[in-house]
Amino acid sequence: MNRRSFSIFDYTSSTGVMSAPRSRKEEAYRRILEIVLSGSLDNDAFLNEQPLAEQFGMSRAPVREALQMLCSERILENVPRMGYRVVPISIRETLDAIHVRLLLEQESVRLACRNRSPEALAKIDALIRQQKKIEEDETSIHSWILQGDLVHRTIAELSGNMILMRTIVSLIDLLRRASIQLLLGGVDKPLEIHYHMRLLEAVRRGDEREALELVTRDCQILQDLIWRQ
Q1: Measuring CA to CA, which of 134, 182, 190, 211 is 20 to 30 A from 140?
Q2: Which residue range is the domain that position 49 belongs to?
Q3: How far apart are CA 79 and CA 64, in angstroms?
Q4: 188 to each of 131, 139, 141, 150, how far by Cα in Å?
Q5: Please, what is the Cα angle at 134 between 128 and 136, to 5 degrees?
Q6: Same domain, 57 and 135
Q7: How many structural domains compose the chain?
Q8: How many helices (DSSP H) and strands (DSSP E) are in the chain?
Q9: Is pLDDT of 156 > 90?
Q10: Are residues 103 and 139 in the same domain?
Q11: Do 122 and 12 fall within a single domain?
C-alpha cells in the first residue's frame, strides 16, 4: 500500500527556509500543497495540470502525479471536465483532529523535554528569536497559525520519534487547511498572550509540567476559534 512519504514540512527547516525537493514530482507536490495551504484559492476554484505545469516550468507528467497523490491523501479531489479542487473539511472532522493532535503532542512535548541535546537547544534558540519578531510584527491569523505550526512541528521533531512526528505533521497539514476554510470570515488573531514562545522556553528548560499545560492551552485556542464559526 502506498503511503504518504513527505509533506510541506519535509522541505522546511526550523527557520522556515524551504529546502530543495528530491524530484520533479516532489517539487510539484510541494508547490501545489503550498498553494492549497496558503489560503489563496477561493472555495470554488479549480487547479488544472497545464496551467500549473506552465507556472512551475515543468512538463505535465510530474504535475499530474503530484495531483493524483494529493487526491489519494484526500487533500484534493478530481472533478471531471473541471479540474482539481480542495476537499472541504467539516467542523466535526476538524475538532476530532484537534483532539487527536493534542494527545500526540502531549507525548511529543514529554519526549522533547527529555531529549535536549546541544543541537536541539540551538534549534529551539533560533526559533525563539524568530518567534519574538513574529509576535511583534505579525497581524495575519493565517500567518500566526503557520508560525505556530512550525513550533509544534519542531517540538515533534525534537521528540526523536519519527512516526510520532510524521503523524503530527499530517494532522498539522489537515488543520491548516481546515483553518483556511473555516476562518475565511475574517477572524482576528487571538488577543490572549502568545503561547508559542513560552512553550519553546518550557521545552528548553525541560519543564514538562509547564510545557504540557501550554500545549494543551494552545490547542484549546484553536478549538475555540473553530467553535466560534
Answers
A1: 211
A2: 8-86
A3: 14
A4: 18, 8, 6, 20
A5: 110
A6: no
A7: 2
A8: 9, 2
A9: yes
A10: yes
A11: no
Most confident of 30-34, 51-55, 170-174, 225-229: 51-55
Distance CA 157, CA 109 (A): 10
Asked if residue 111 and residue 208 are part of one domain, the reply reads: yes
Whole-Å CA distances, 179 to 37, 115, 153, 216: 9, 31, 17, 18
Do 70 and 100 belong together in one domain?
Answer: no
Q: Report residue 133's pLDDT band, with 50, 70 and 90 as the boundaries.
A: low
Specify the pLDDT at position 168: 94
Q: Nearest-CA neighbor of 106 among 209, 204, 7? A: 209
- The one-letter code for the residue type at 108 is S
Q: For residue 181, is it within any domain?
A: yes
Confidence of residue 182 (pLDDT cuts 50, 70, 90): low
**Looking at the domain assignment, is residue 218 inside a domain?**
yes
Contact by Cβ (8 Å): 11, 30: yes
**Mean pLDDT for the stretch of residues 42-51:** 86
Residue pair 146/180 in contact by the 8 Å Cβ criterion = no
Cell of residue 16, nine digits: 522556515
- The 8-class DSSP code of residue 187 comes to P
| In 24-140, alpha helices (H) | 24-38, 49-56, 60-72, 91-114, 118-137
Q: Taking the alpha carbons of 111, 113, 114, 120 in that order, is the dihedral positive or negative?
A: positive
Residue type, 203: V
The average confidence (pLDDT) of the chain is 80
Q: What is the pLDDT of residues 72-92, one digit of tens each?
A: 888 899 999 899 998 888 888
